[in-house]
Design a protein that fits this description.
The complex is a heterodimer of chains A (235) and B (268).
Chain A (H helix, E strand, L loop, with lengths): L1 E6 L6 H16 L1 E7 L5 H9 L3 E5 L5 H18 L4 E5 L15 E7 L6 H4 L1 H5 L3 E5 L6 H14 L4 E4 L9 H9 L52
Chain B lengths: L8 E4 L13 E4 L4 E5 L6 H9 L11 E4 L6 H5 L6 E4 L11 H11 L5 H15 L15 H14 L5 E5 L8 H10 L3 E5 L3 H6 L2 E6 L2 E6 L6 H22 L10 H5 L4
Parallel strand pairs in B: 3-7, 3-8, 5-6, 6-7
Antiparallel strand pairs in B: 1-2, 1-4, 8-9
Helix pairs in contact in B: 3-4, 4-5
Classes of the chains: A alpha/beta (235), B alpha/beta (268).
Chain lengths: 235, 268
């Protein structure tokens, strides 16, 4: 079974990309799909209805959705393997740009929207840099010049990343994604899968529920405004 | 091969919405050719130029394939917009970047690794202003440009900075640009252009007309000189309409003294 992990901020077209992948791999690959989201998600029902494939969703609730995804990934792999699936697609909630959800033994896809502004690749560097492929969607809506600048900025973040431009609704340009995913090896040992990148520096007091604002009220990983260059200052 | 040395594009037939093969085997588009795509709304005009833009390889709904110089394009040409010999400008083509005109052009020039940045910016703005009645300046914000100004700037950018040999223009006539100046500039520069258009004058001015219906090409017309007299006449009518449009826009009343009937030769 192959594992594909799809990340990207909200509304960039992740699910449109997933639809194209399912369309391509439906015959003979029996794809399975898991959506991780925070409060509500509908993609699992829509895709199950549209393609008749096994789908699930996980609500992370108070937990960070990328953490939730990592927590359930081992179980999700067993679930899909038991169904005899040849391709498990994990779609992230797309909230955090720092703690990217890609793992070893999986094909990581960062989805970016061409209409999100040409600087956006620079702002979401880890999400792009850890991926195997960047899929730029909605390229039919922007000028040629902006497409080129967008591509330059992705290259600045990840010089060797594979980039495809697409109108994901139409599926234009997606053949290169399909080729790369087909060529990607099956996962070999689920027990050995680890995150590709380092997660952020551990939880902070805000994560555990303290609501006061200002670093004076917190301990652990804290940062005053004037010392923004320090990574952290212990209590 | 450099983009600007690219010589010809071949469109190989796909199928219509009912799965029936299109009314041609191949359409060859050579440098300097001008074509128009005509047909009712929803007949597949935009899909036709989209196929060319993405260099389709039977991987779009139409099943068409596009060859460059008689062979399938390289992956690099199909995937890297700066290697692609084609610029598509549509009515929905937007500039999202919140930058002024000169910085926007500068970024594109840098992405293209071209030199003489200042001259190039100046020339591109000058050409834009030949295409549009509403002048732009380098300090204007891109997002504040009108539809017509944006279209004019993107066409000038494609010609001078992108140096794209093939331009695909989707219903740009509605944006209020000087279409006669655009078409003559494109011809002077030996660019290939394909207009998707509902504008009779633009359609008549091109060398070939591709007629669409139900998602497929049903006819390819090559009028040669047969429409020459018509073109001259339509040009006069078009000029008259342009003049009227400008006067109406500036708040004038149009009355009998304008003798519209006489000008377009309507029998009394």
């Amino acid at each position: 079974m192959k594992l594909a992990i799809i990340a990207g901020t909200a509304s960039v077209g992740k699910t449109a990309v997933v639809r194209q992948i399912i369309r391509e791999f439906r015959e003979g690959c029996n794809p399975a799909y898991v959506k991780i989201d925070v409060v509500r998600a509908f993609e699992d029902e829509e895709l199950r209805e549209e393609f008749g494939i096994p789908t699930r969703k996980v609500y992370s609730g108070d937990l960070c959705p990328d953490h939730a995804g990592i927590m359930v990934l081992q179980d999700a792999i067993s679930w899909a393997q038991n169904l005899g699936s040849g391709l498990l697609i994990i779609e992230s909630a797309g909230l955090c740009l720092r703690c990217t959800p890609y793992t070893t033994q999986s094909f990581g896809i960062a989805v970016l929207s061409a209409v999100s502004g040409s600087n956006s690749p620079l702002k979401m560097a880890p999400m792009i840099a850890q991926a195997d492929m960047a899929v730029v969607t909605k390229t039919d809506l922007v000028s040629q010049a902006e497409k080129e600048v967008f591509r330059e900025y992705i290259k600045e973040v990840a010089p060797s990343i594979d980039i495809i431009e697409t109108n994901a609704i139409q599926g234009t340009g997606m053949r290169y994604l399909m080729k790369a995913l087909s060529a990607y090896p099956d996962l070999s040992d689920a027990e050995q899968i680890v995150l590709r990148g380092s997660p952020p520096l551990g939880v902070c007091t805000i994560c555990v529920g303290k609501k006061e604002i200002g670093w004076q009220h917190h301990f652990g990983v804290i940062r005053p405004l004037e010392e923004a260059d320090n990574i952290y200052r212990g209590d | 091969m450099r983009r600007d040395q690219m010589s010809e594009i071949t469109v190989l037939a796909g199928t219509n919405r009912s799965g029936k093969r299109e009314g041609f085997d191949q359409i060859i588009i050579r440098p300097g050719d001008t074509l128009s795509i005509v047909g009712p709304t929803g007949s597949g005009k935009s899909a036709f130029i989209n196929d060319i833009e993405v260099l389709a390889q039977a991987d779009t709904v139409t099943g068409r394939r596009i060859l460059v110089n008689g062979v399938p394009p390289s992956d690099e040409m199909a995937r890297d917009p700066s290697k692609k010999p084609i610029a598509l400008i549509t009515q929905s083509t937007r500039v999202i970047a919140d930058l002024d005109v000169s910085r926007f052009l500068e970024l594109h020039i840098e992405a293209r690794k071209q030199t003489h940045i200042e001259d190039l910016i100046e020339n591109t703005i000058a050409l834009t202003n030949e295409f549009t009645g509403e002048q732009i300046t380098e300090a204007m914000s891109m997002t504040a440009l009108s539809g017509g100004q944006t279209r004019a700037l993107l066409i000038a950018d494609a010609i001078l900075i992108g140096r794209t040999p093939i331009l695909l223009l989707d219903e740009v006539e509605n944006a209020g640009i000087f279409k006669e100046r655009v078409i003559s500039c494109i011809k002077e520069c030996r660019k290939t252009v394909i207009f998707v258009t509902h504008d009779p004058y633009l359609a008549l001015r091109t060398d070939r007309r591709i007629v669409m219906s139900n998602g497929a090409v049903v006819k390819v017309l090559e009028p040669h000189d047969r429409e020459r007299a018509t073109i001259a006449r339509v040009s006069e009518i078009d000029d008259l309409l342009w003049d009227l449009r400008e006067r109406i826009r500036s708040g004038e009343l149009i009355g009998e003294e304008d003798a519209i009937d006489e000008k377009i030769g309507v029998p009394a």
